[in-house]
């Protein structure tokens, strides 16, 4: 939590932020997925079934199962309008990376970071573009209102293609994150003795910032690795049961939601500081 900001104010900021709302809906969707599919999925994970008894989370009647199934689908649909124009942001970021001139003699790590960042943004933009392209058919779902001549089959195929783009985007993000961690570790070892020359205060402050930066990168890498299960299972590249996918989706949503939570806290802190000046 940001210093001087109450949890309630931060939650209000988070709950009125488009990214925050989308993360909350995704978290609920992942929980419903776990409730629906955990009994059959946990049969393959005895240790997990001991920690979380399936009788505790298993839907009790067919009516409840049907209700949860419809609710899960509706939550997924509700999230799409919140991402409608987000592909523009991804393409803008990708273009900025592409046109930005590299240093005179970029290292291998710099080159890898540049192209993995570009790939992550560009492929994610393609995923979001295809998702927005079928907005009328998937979200509005009004008879006679649609853009694609191919009908439901064309919409389904575009959805699968979008999942493939998302998968590749996540892979690029993971590779870029691992490279960043390796570069950071190498830089830390090479500059390990420089903190004393700058004074204990500056050295400690730089060390704390470095650790925080590493944690954020590591958190994003772990979240992306968990998220691979969602598009990977949809296109058949990751053979996981829906219950396990739901558990991984819950974990990735919690980690990425924490990023949004921290950003909201920083924005409140900046606004509070500006009000004092």
TrEMBL record:
One of its GO terms (biological process) is peroxisome fission. Keywords: Membrane, Peroxisome, Peroxisome biogenesis, Transmembrane, Transmembrane helix. It is found in: Peroxisome membrane. Its main location: membrane. It holds the Pfam family PEX11. Residues 195-207 have a biased composition (Basic and acidic residues). Residues 187-212 are annotated as: Disordered. GO terms for cellular component: peroxisomal membrane. It comes from the Eukaryota. The chain crosses the membrane at residues 165-183, 234-258. This is Peroxisomal biogenesis factor 11-domain-containing protein. It comes from Dichotomopilus funicola.
